[in-house]
Amino acid sequence: METLQLEVVTPERLLLATEAKMVTIPGQDGLFGVMPGHTPFLSGVKAGLLVIGDIERGERYVVSRGFAQVHRNQVTVLVDQAVAEKDLSAKTATRDLEQARQALSGLAPEDPAHAACLEQVAFAEACLALTGSGKR
């Protein structure tokens, strides 16, 4: 069976380079799935859950905003932040969410830092939800 070559890249490092039969990515317009032979395209990525394989049982990562490119069975996901489910802890995710919300609370919507803080809140919420402790 054909596979995809998947890379998840942050500014700090190549987080993941693997083969996959399917990957689900949180796009700007909603989740999208990519399988071998998919039409080439470029999409914005928003904070959320990236899943390799079956959506219910696959290997899971939380990604922040960025871009995803699909071309010739190669999927490249370039994001500001990404973390594997196995590397998450509820305690750290809770702390990060509290800090992000606190930073956001002091900013007016027109402040240049407001959008970045909103993204950090969304990323922290997704991390916390993946730990199973997410309460919205």
Shape: globular
| Rg (CA only) | 15 Å
Tally of helical runs = 2
> Into which percentage range does the β-strand content fall?
35-45%
How is this fold's topology laid out?
Blueprint: E1 4-9, E2 14-20, E3 23-27, E4 30-34, E5 41-45, E6 48-52, E7 59-63, E8 66-71, E9 74-79, E10 82-84, H1 90-105, H2 114-130
Parallel strand pairs: 1-9
Antiparallel strand pairs: 1-2, 3-4, 3-6, 5-8, 6-7, 7-10, 8-9
Report on the structure:
This protein is of the alpha+beta class. The chain contains two helices and ten strands. The strands form two sheets. Strands 2-1-9-8-5 form a five-stranded mixed β-sheet, with no helix packed on it. A hairpin with a 2-residue loop joins strand 3 and strand 4 (30-34). Helix 1 runs antiparallel to helix 2. The longest helix is centred in the last third of the chain and has 17 residues, at 114-130. The relative contact order is 0.17.
